[in-house]
Task: structure prediction
Amino acid sequence: MPIFKIHHITKYEYDRPVRESVNEIKIFPFTCSEQETLSHELIITSLPEIQTFIDYWGNKTGVFNVLSLHKELIIESKLVVRTIAPSQLRINFHTGFEQLQKEVNSHLQLIELSEADAIKRQHAIDEIVQKITGDGKSVAATVERCAEYIFKYFSYIKGITDIETTVDDIVEHRSGVCQDFAHLMLQVLRTLKIPSRYVSGYICPNKTGMRGEGATHAWIEAYLPAYGWAGIDPTNNVWVTNHHVKLAVGRHFHDCSPVKGTFKGPARQKLSVYVSVGYEDGHVFEELNNVQMHTLTTDAKEELIDESFTGQQQQ
Result:
């Protein structure tokens, strides 16, 4: 049961003062049986009051505003969390699609999470489906083969995609990062009517090393009949155990965006994101990203881009 100390700083810098910055944050650890929050401290510029609520997907969500003029906005999270999932999961590989359908039909949210998006290159998704399915395959085995297929046949390359990259783009280029692979896997599984959801969080390094380690990360959870939600990481082709820390879940990234909001002012903005993961033995793994932001210069409310955390998710 490892304990991780996660220090996460999101910093916006403006070339001139802005005002009325209203923001929504989803950087609270998800409440579930696989992890335990030992402490969590949030420090935000001007120390605004944070109102919290639980959203539709079960995520703890905070909202705050900074009304006064400011040239920077810093959101700092200091989290100590213990992961308590077993290192060896007992995934149920014995239940099939008939039992899955019975369970899905009795739950509205599962129905919603089993509907695929309409995309232009669905034929390419259908080809993947044909390659990962076969007679007698259990739901869990199909999910596992999907992650393996993405891991083998799609290249992990940083910097070639962003938050607006679509599944059509990923299929065309056959490359991307964790967020892209999560969205691709969701489309494949939902084509098979397997309920699945996007997960945002952190991946903490282990002895063998993992893609995206030491920073924010994205993976998916699939619903397995007679088992429940099971996390699987197509970027690393592993079932999720005690090296993943979960923040939020949803249908897509936009449901889990760690920070989004608006501000007033004709300013250009710069975003930098710092994440460090510390261990009980004192070892620290850290990463700093400078994120390319869209810049608008109207004096109206300006969208800060759902990707305030793009640099974190795009690992």
